[in-house]
Each structure stands twice: as structure tokens, then as C-alpha cells.
Amino acid sequence: MSSPAVTDAGHGLADGEWHRLHPASPLLRGGLVLLGVLGFIIANLRERVIDVFLVLVAPGGDEGFPGSPDGDDWAGDPIDAIVANGLVGWALVAVAVVLVVLIVGFWLSWRMHTFRVTHEAVEVRSGILFRSHRSARLDRVQGINVSRPVFARLFGTAKLDISVAGQSGNVQLAYLGSAAADRLRGDVLRLASGIRSQRAAAPAAASVGDDHLALGGMPAGADAATGVPAAGGVPGGIPPGTRAGALVGRRMEEFLAPELDPGLAPPESVVHLPAGRVVASTLLGGATVWFAIIAVVIAVGLSTGAFWVLFTFVPAAIGLVSYVWSRITKSLRYSIAGTPDGVRIGHGLLSTANQTIPPGRVHAVEATQWLLWRAFGWWSVRINLAGQSLSGNNEQVQRTLVLPVGTIADVHRVLGLLLPDAAAAVDPLVDAGLTGGGGDAGFTQPPRRAAWLRPFSWRRTGWASAAGIVLVRRGVLLRRLVLVPLARMQSVAIEVGPVRRALGLAALRVHTVAGPVTAVVPVVARSEADAAFERLAHEAVVRAAGDHSERWGASAHAS
Amino acid sequence: MPDPLAHEHDVEGDGAPSVPAREPIAAPPVPDVAGEVRAEGPAGAAVTAAPARTAPDDTGWRRVSPKYVVVEVVGSLIGTAVLVGGLLIVNALFDLTWAVWIAVAVGIAALIGIAFEPRRVRSIGYRLRADDLVFRRGIMFQRQVAVPYGRMQLVDITRGPVARALGLADLRFVTAAAATAVTLPGLPLEDAESLRDELVALAETRRAGL
């Protein structure tokens, strides 16, 4: 790629040209670790460095440190060996070479890491020796996540994570200027929504003009020309450009698509999550039970004199505390709101994350209530999204949790956002699904013999359907209500084992993409299961054929 | 609401004795019509949203090749032989008599399993309907799955050494849900290939978003 075509990040990023990331990104991605390691080494070698200086000032003989009283203890120490053999100069050269290689490597990796957003896909090229070219089709975008870790926030940058269908198929743009990331998110969603005819005509000229304004004194390749290493030269240089770009970009968006601009009128969160409820609900969660168990084990261990338990269980308790702490800080400042480009969920106190799920990407929704939460009427809501692996890391778990804790009214509102088309038809069923039991409000009930398999929850186990959504409710200790849009259903199955066959029962499963939510009716009368199987299999095909939410904007625009 | 699925339909007509053997599957309340040809009720293709598409006729239930029994039997014989051999070696080396008894038990269990193998293979069935493929298998643990054609992401043919010697192949369907897990074993190779092409074409015409 010739350098003039590549422009620096900061404005109009979705114009189909190749752009670079924020210049501080190598530092943020890997450099901080390097600095930390260096700091650690220096802190540990402080005394040794002094010794080295002494040796340099008054070089001794070949014996090493003649004055050192405990020379034997330091035998085998690499630094001693170096000093003893008179290799100090070489060692310094080696360190310098390593540093230069690292800095050049960082700079090169920044130079070679480019991305572009076309009307079809988001493409990223990276790598110095082994080039990789990754492209994500826009119509398969499952969600966009803007996260700002603490360090990135200090630099005014953000990480953009575009998740597409398929395991580990995410395209990550780390890091971009904070405002640029928000704008790029809007642009990608707008392109993905299929509205481009409107965009292509007049605004193109305007955006070109704006680009020149925004660029100002930052022509492409300025860093290369001056030879200033990227990490050092830029943090002072780029903010004016970014800010001007943000300003111009905002103007541009107002002009282009006022009805689509989520930034113009910041969406009001439909759920208010008091900090007290976050803390209380986390303390009443499963972690507390584990904490109690560990405390009992430690107490028993101490009373019986088995002090080894301290070494195994105290670290576990500390880990648990840090887990609870991270749960709480991540759930603080939670907001969820509907925008024309999808549901936007934000959360986080120190490291913030901001996720947008475009319409029609929700494959399954589950509201759960644990036993200890029942007295307070609290529920949490999780979803299945394509492109999430089952054994996801912490970040992915956070992404599938759309409501950390809320009341029934909050659950209604969140469901209305997640399943907008069917919300009106499903809403009357939700209350019965969350707390009801028996054959009320359209939910089926298994025959009494199901109590052999589900002694407590058989009354609650049942399913209903409305407006192309299957609702499955089950569980008493852990109450669950699962909603699956049939347009997203992958397949449906009946399973009958020997016990269920003897009882005339079956298990009905609705398969969705992998995620924290599984839709299964564990006990249902066999005849009813057969009927449901046929009905779901048929309705899923009809609903999928009539569903065009992957290009949600195009249909809305056409109508 | 469509009629309940007909549980018995012997298309190939190879194994007449199979029909009564599966009677207990149907639960009493199901009006089970053994040998009913077309259980495709009101839910058939007529109501489907896209009548213009090429809809295949309902094929009824099809079986996999009876030769697939050989593949299963060889597989379980090899597994049993390894296990029994290992136990006998343990006995010979350490003089542990209980190992012999376990070996005998394993052998008997394997023989019983092999005796049921033809029934198990006969229980594997698939059916191409207007809009989806229905697959079922199992006699003790029965499983029945419906996969809409538009949901198939990948159709894969795999062949093990024994199956290859017999001219058989396995057809595997992958959807976006890992739990779907549908594998049609023991199809004659040319059937498997034509079925794959047919299914890929069907999936292409009904391709929906995820």
C-alpha cells in the first residue's frame, strides 16, 4: 500500500479508503506490558545497578567482586557473570538493540495495521512478516462493542469490536480515537442497515470537502516524513485534528441522516439501575454461597489445626472478592436504550463498554431469578448472539448479560427492546411466564405423571407461542423464562429416553446458536410434543422466509 | 395443528419385521396409524410463504442402507476386542482374576449390543419434507430433529475405512447451532452425493440470514 492513500484515523473513517489506527495503539496493546516488565526489572535491580556503576568506575580483576562478602551466593547470577567477564559493553549494546527492535517493531506494526470500511465489508490488514487480511461482511454483523479500558481512557481512545457470525470471527480495531470510534460505529451500522442509496448522492461531495478541513496540518505520512517515532510524536499532535474531525463529523451526520443519528439526541435509558441494587444483588448471588463455603472450610481447618487450608482457600477467597468487585463495577452506570440502529447497552465504572446489537440479531432471551432474589422480585436477562463461543471469556459473558438485575417492569421493557416486532403480542404472556404456574395464560402444562421427573417444577414447566416467539418457562429454585424468535431457530428436536417413554413424556428442544441460553421443555406429554414439533418446524420456516431484519434499514426506508 | 407424525412408514420395504417392533414408541394418546403414507397434514407446503420455490415432494421416511449394520458391528467388535484384550493382559501380568470377570461381562454386553444392532440401524430414518429435513434415530433413546433447509450451513460427506469398503458414506449437516448434530450414516455413496447436491441446492434457494 502506498502511503499517500493511507490516512490517519480521526475523521470520516467509513469512506472506503484504508486508514490507520490511533498512533498510541501499539503502546496501549503491548507497550504497557513492556513498560511494566522494564519497571519490574529496574526495581529489582536497583542495587545491582549501583554495583555495576561501582565496577565501571573502579574495575576489579578477573575474580569479579573482590570486596563482595557473599560472592558465593551470587554465583550463577547472569549480571555477575557478565560483569566478571567484562561484557558490560556488549550487554548494554544488546539491551539497546532489543529496545530499538521493539520500538521499530511497534512502529512498523502500527504502520502496517490498516483497515477500511466499504459498502460490503469491514477489512483489516495487519502483520509485519505474516500479513493477515480479515474481512467481515456487513450484513453478518452481529453487534458492535465500543470499550474503553482505563488506560485507553487516559489516552482518549477506545476499542471497537465488530462481532460477526462465526466463532472467533471478530474484527477488532484497537485503538481508535474515542470520538472516531463512536462515529465509526454509527457509520458501520448505517452501512449494514442497507441505507446507502440515500447516502451516496449529495453527501459524498460534502464529506470530501470536510475531510480537507479536518485534516488541517496532519497530512498522511507526516510521521514517516519527519522520522519521529509514532509513539513519541503523536499524543500531542493528534487531538486537535481528532476534535476538529469530531466536530465536522457531527455536523455531517446531522446533515446526512438526522433520524438515524443516535448521538444527536442521546437515548434515554429505559432501565434505571440503582447502585444499591447492584451491590445487594451481587452479594446475594452465587458468589456469596461459595464465600460462605470457603469461610466454613477455613474455620474448620483452623480449629482442627490443619493450617494448610490457609494456603489453598485464602487465595480462592481473595479471587472471589475480586470477582465480586469486578461484577459490581462492571454493572454500575448501566444503561439500555433503543436506537434506530439497535439496542445500545452501556456499563462500567472505570473501564466502560458500550455495545450495540442491531435488530434481528437476538437468537434467544432468558430471564432468570435465583431463589434468594425472589423476595426482592429481581431478575436478570441474558441473550444468545451468533459468534459467541460457549466457554466465553469474561468479556463475552458480560456481553450476553443485557440486564444484570432488574424488576419485572424492567424485564418487560428490555424484552420490548430486544424483540420489538413481537413485543405487543408477547407482553401479556411474560408475567405468567416469569412467576406463574399451572396451565394459565396460554402456557401448556405437562400431565401429573411428569412429577416423577420434575417433582417441584412440573407445574411450571410449559411453553407457549405468540407472534413467532416461543416462550418456555421452567424451574422453581432457578426460575427461567426463555424466549426464542422462530425466525432465528436453527432446528427443533424431540428426545425420548426410557423413563420418559414409560411415562408417556418427551423433552422438546429448540436449537439456537450457542450461548448461555438453552431452550428446552424437559417434560411435555408425548402427543403434545409431536404436535409442537410439527408446528414449530413449520412455523420456523415461514417466519424465517418472512424475516428481513439483517437489512433492517432498507425495509424501513422503503416502506 | 398438523397431524402427529406417522411413526411407521417403510419405504424401502426391505425389513418387514421392523414394523411391529417399533410399536411401543407411539404414546397411547397419539392416534398412531402404522404404515400411513402421508402424514403431511395442513402444515404442508401449501401454507408456506414462498410457493414459487422448488419444493421437493415429501419423500416419506427413508432408511439407511442395511449394510451399515456391518460398519457398526465391526466398530463395536474392535472396541470390545481392545477392551477385553487389555483386561486379559492385566490378568496375565498381575494375576487379577476380577479382570477376567470384567472381560466376560464386557463381552456379553457387547454381544447383546451387537444383537440389537440391526434394530438400531433400522431405526435410523430421514425424510425430506417440503421445507425441512426430519431425522430420527434410536430405540432406547429416541431422537427426532427437524432442520429447515435454509438453516443448513454445510453438508459434509465423511467415510470411514469399513464404510468405504462397503461403498457407504456418512452425510453430516451443520447449522449455526452445535446442538443440531445431525449425521446420516450409512448411505450408499452415490445416494449421499446426490442427496448432498440436492440439499445444497435447496439450502441455496432458501438461504435466510442467520
Automatic annotation (TrEMBL), chain A:
Pfam families: bPH_2
Domain of life: Bacteria
InterPro entries: UCP026631 (IPR014529), YdbS-like_PH (IPR005182)
Keyword field contains Transferase: no
Keywords from the UniProt entry: Membrane, Transmembrane, Transmembrane helix
Signal peptide bounds: none
Keyword Transmembrane helix attributed: yes
Residue intervals of the YdbS-like PH domain: 110-185, 333-389, 458-533
Transmembrane regions listed in the UniProt entry: 27-45, 87-108, 278-300, 306-325
Protein name (Swiss-Prot/TrEMBL): YdbS-like PH domain-containing protein
From TrEMBL, chain B:
Stretches for region Disordered: 1-26
Every YdbS-like PH domain range: 122-199
Family annotation (InterPro entries): YdbS-like_PH (IPR005182)
Basic and acidic residues composition-biased segments: 1-12
Superkingdom in the source lineage: Bacteria
Name of this chain's protein: PH domain-containing protein
Organism listed in the record: Agromyces tardus
Lineage of the species this protein comes from: Bacteria, Bacillati, Actinomycetota, Actinomycetes, Micrococcales
